[in-house]
């Protein structure tokens, strides 16, 4: 890492890796120096697309590339523990996509490994780095809506997704919860912390993953959060937080919003907006990683590791309530609905 640029490695070559890399290319202080995939052919095609000088047909070579300051792990979450762990073992700093891992146990292992190596580690929860979400969280902390009473958030896709799709594949951590539900849960916990109690219901597929899940989270303060995710219906994908003195509403695409409205008792509604270029941008999390690395930090205050672990514990609790287990957790070759 130099004063001028942070050198990135990209691990995996799917759609989210391409979106993230496209954002990096536009940052003057970021340099993408290497990419790795399970096949050399895929890595070379990705490298040619983005002008990346080195392409590796295996994760190990990228993990041991001393010219890489930080690796962005963009595999399906079923491989996050292995991929991020390999990079941390080799002394690389890591930004790992969400859901951070399959379960809290794997997440704890990665956090312990990062601390042992003194390496930077962060979940790629881009929502937390979004300027408007940061503004919203600040308003809530400052009491703009009074004491938080309830949170609502949902994220659903219409599908349909065939049984062979990764979102329905138990071996890849399929299901609505880890892919989509992580956003509503993370939004609720950004504002209220880890819940004291979790209840949930789900519709399971024949493969044993959740097609849609609804959960009710509760806190000792009396606050409640209702969260929903779906692979079988396109939801409003909105969020709101209601307090004793007002409410904040976020329209469609709450997790990458460029607009929200604050309603306070006895006042006219206030609209908060940002530039359209910020909507859908992954650059904010990259900027935060580079800021932290230059500051010598091993985790980000915007996406703290304790918060990531708390979200993973909640996701585990929801899966426990609805009966979803993955092959790596059970040792079974296949899953059946609980």
Structure description:
The chain is an alpha/beta fold. It has eleven helices and 14 strands. The strands form two sheets. The protein has an eight-stranded mixed sheet with strand order 8-9-10-7-11-12-13-14, with helices on one face. Strands 3-2-1-4-5-6 form a six-stranded parallel sheet, with helices on both faces. Strand 1, helix 1 and strand 2 form a beta-alpha-beta unit. Helix 8 packs across helix 10. The longest helix is centred in the last third of the chain and has 18 residues.
List keywords for this structure.
six-stranded parallel beta sheet; alpha/beta; eight-stranded mixed beta sheet
Give the helix/strand layout:
Elements (H helix, E strand, L loop, with lengths): L5 E6 L3 H11 L4 E7 L3 H11 L3 E3 L2 H5 L6 E4 L6 H10 L3 E4 L7 H14 L3 E3 L2 H4 L1 H11 L6 E9 L19 H17 L4 E8 L5 E9 L5 E7 L8 E5 L2 E5 L8 E6 L5 E4 L9 H12 L10 H18 L4 H4 L8
Parallel strand pairs: 1-2, 1-4, 2-3, 4-5, 5-6, 7-10
Antiparallel strand pairs: 7-11, 8-9, 9-10, 11-12, 12-13, 13-14
Produce a short descriptive summary.
35% of the residues lie in helices and 24% in strands. With 338 residues, the chain is α/β, with parallel strands linked by helices. Strand 11 and strand 12 form a beta hairpin.
Strand content: 15-25%
Task: Give the end-to-end Cα distance, rounded to a whole number of Å.
Answer: 49 Å
Order of helices and strands: EHEHEHEHEHEHHEHEEEEEEEHHH
Structural class: alpha/beta
Q: What Rg, in angstroms, do the CA atoms define?
A: 20 Å
Q: What is the arithmetic mean of pLDDT?
A: 94
Strand arrangement across the biggest beta sheet:
8-9-10-7-11-12-13-14
Q: Any idea what the shape is? A: globular
Largest sheet: 8 strands, mixed
Q: What does the oligomeric state look like here? A: single chain
Low-pLDDT stretches are 332-338
* H/I helix tally: 11
Work out the helicity level: 25-40%
